[in-house]
Input
Amino acid sequence: MTGTASTKLIGKRRQNPILRFFTLLYKQRTLVALCILPMALVFVFSYGPMYGVLIAFKNYNAGKGVWRSQWTGFGNFQWFFENVNSVQIILQTLKVGVLSLIFTYPMPIILALSLNEVAKKGFKRTVQSISYIPHFISVVVICTMLNEFGSVNGLFNDVRALFGLDRVNMNAGTNYFMLFYIGSAIWQGAGWGSIIYLSALSNVDTSLYDVANIDGANRFQKIRHIALPAILPTTTIVLILNSGNILSQDFTKILLMMNNTNRMDLEVISTYVYRIGIVTGEFDHGTAVNLLVSLVSLILVLTTNRIVKSIDPEQAMF
Amino acid sequence: MKKLLALAIALLLAMGCMSAFAADGPIEGLDYPDLPDNTLKITVSTANFGTDQVNTKMMKLWQEKMEEYLGIKLDITWTTIPWDDFRSNESVKLAAKDLADVNTYSQGDLVNQYGAEGVVLNLNDYLDYMVYYPTFVEGNVGGWDGINNLDGSSYVFWDGYDNDVNLAGAQSFAAYAYRFDVLQEYGLEPATTWEEFKDLCADLQALIDSGEVDADYVLHNGASWMAFYRGFVGTFHTWDTLYWNGEEWAFGPIEDNFREMLTELHELYELGYINSEFQTDESADDEAENARILCVPTLWAGSVQTWNAQSDEDVVWGLAYLPSSEHGTAWKWGSKITGKNLGTNLQMGIIVNAETEYPEWIVSMIDYQYSPDIYLMLNWGVEGEDWYLGDDGLRHYTDKFMAQPVSDRAQLLADEGIMSSASARTGIAFVPQIFSTIAAYGDTEPWWSPEKGYYEGHYWYETAFNGGVESISPYDRAPIVNVSDETKTARAALKSACESYAKTESVKFITGELDITDDAVWAAYVEGVKSQYKGFDDIIAAQNEGTDLESLSMYHD
Output
């Protein structure tokens, strides 16, 4: 073997990506060791059960198991679209998801920015603590409260009566559902959600505010040019992640807010999957519908990320 | 000689070896597998119905009696889960094959697919190990044919019932509750026909409007989770689910009679008789106890005793049988079959894990729960301590319970693990219940009938006397149906999916959100119901094709 040939071989070995990958792993073995447990958890509990999505394409017989059940192609998907409510379920899902995002996403940001402007620390801490408390109330308790307050003789109707309005059964039908659902979500989540933004705001270099003061910037100009850019990366990531949850509403809350007057009208994909998949025992059909949701959610995340990337590539997740 | 001796020794040794692998069990002539330390160590997953039965006095007696019968020791690890949670997780646990050795079960036909695949034990392979359960099976319509699958298998020890008084009584949706104090004060009487009922509602509304009676509404629902129409379907000879209507299997909520009923209810709603919160008010009991309503057509009859106990003395709730209509005497829901039986709605029971190590012992153990030794004891308690034989020749609870207020008795019985309380199902649920115990500890409630006027009675008995044989719905005496396991499973799913849809849409018809008089709207509703489950019409057709009409001759009401 000539010297030139030997050098070429060594060069090829060095360029082998697999070898290079494992060499890198070995060099960073301490970090790799740290990652083993979390990765194992992800593989066991997230990737492992993924083979179960196969039942979306099968006439699943739990006794026979996943592999021995008969294939049905897209039969389970077709069944969903044959349901007279399927379009309404999809629309209701989108309506709840989009409106929730529109109204609940900005609230923690607004609260964080407002709190950031409060000079008195004692007042700021008190407001923060009070706003966090609803987060710790069980959704079951929240829904019970809503049911009580929304009844004809409940608190909300007492307030209506103060303004001379008729008492109405706010729990019946769908008229007040969005108000209750989103209102309670804001009440419960705004304070808790503001923590991450307050954390980002605490890292802002205070000299920027000093400079802004010298330049004569008013309060809103300081928010616009200092505070908002400081939390922009955080708000972007939260938006991208939330956009993936548009089709995955607060399933428990919707289920608890349902009654015999509105069950079908409030049905969203997650409650439908629960009712048909778990309660009725049609696991294959439930899986098919849920798989559909997962695909749409993935598309939503990718689309949002692409939009963000087109506006400001540095803020995109990938 | 030596050869004979050797042969005798060999025989003795062989017999000794055989005896090491077979133990004496409760049934003579049957071989039971030998148990380590003569102890059957198993797990049991069961439900609690409000009171945890595991550490009660009766549970200890159950174990003692069971060990005595089986001739072995029992080492049972109990898991008890509140009934609602138990039911909601059951299908998932079955699908995950996460079964204890012995499991309470409540999902009807769903088990068949798991049995066919060897997850659940086929009990018919162990018929020799049963002595008492067959009595209940043979008391049922169709006997063994009624419970067996087409391939001859059976996977559930179905919940038994001993109707020892031979009365076709019922407890829910069999009577309307009225404010007797108001009716009597104003010279009114409960309705015997639908037309009378509408007239009575008008009279009561007039009393409210004039301020003579202080109430908010004439009619209200007994509980928001119950479909309001449930109290009316019997009057209009229809049903709220897939049912036998006397001629064929049909899905009640899409029948013409159901539409007729909704039309009538819409009329009552429009006239302002029905509380607008009839499907959302979660404190319906408060409305009754605080005298804010005058009539509750949809209820569990036992509610009346509670309302009377909780309300002011001058408020008197009472019961009267359902009003009839031009369709005939109103049908009541869930009237009991006479004698020992499994009921017509095979839904609940006990299943055994197919992988359990000692199925012979377990089958004999569960079978013994159907013996009078066990179920009489668990339903009544201990003689002398909990009950005594009266001069009338009947059993009566002792003063330990009867000297206490009526409202406390059920819990006192439950704390002992006595099953008549209904909130403690001792043993492995479901041990058969006895009709006579249900009424034995309770009080009577006010009743009215055209023949007797106002009087005192107990709903379990009065619903049988007042309705008569005509009031027994065809569904409660349905013929047996022979369909495949797949159809049985699909049938169960169809009921669940389609009932949910019908419940919501029916409310819209009652309130007028949907026009009940518009044929196109009704047709769209019917289509909507059918679209909730694939192959709706095919499943009902298969149900009708598999119906054995000859089995109807086995009822003896």
Remarks:
- The CA atoms of residues 157 and 350 of chain B lie 5 Å apart.
- Chain B touches chain A at residues 88, 91-92, 94-95, 97, 107, 110, 113-119, 224-225, 227-228, 276-277, 279-282, 489, 492-493, 496-497, 500-501, 503-505, 507-508, 511, 513, 524, 527-528, 531-532, 534 (CB under 8 Å).
- Residues 175-333+445-554 of chain B form a domain with the D-Maltodextrin-Binding Protein; domain 2 fold (CATH 3.40.190.10).
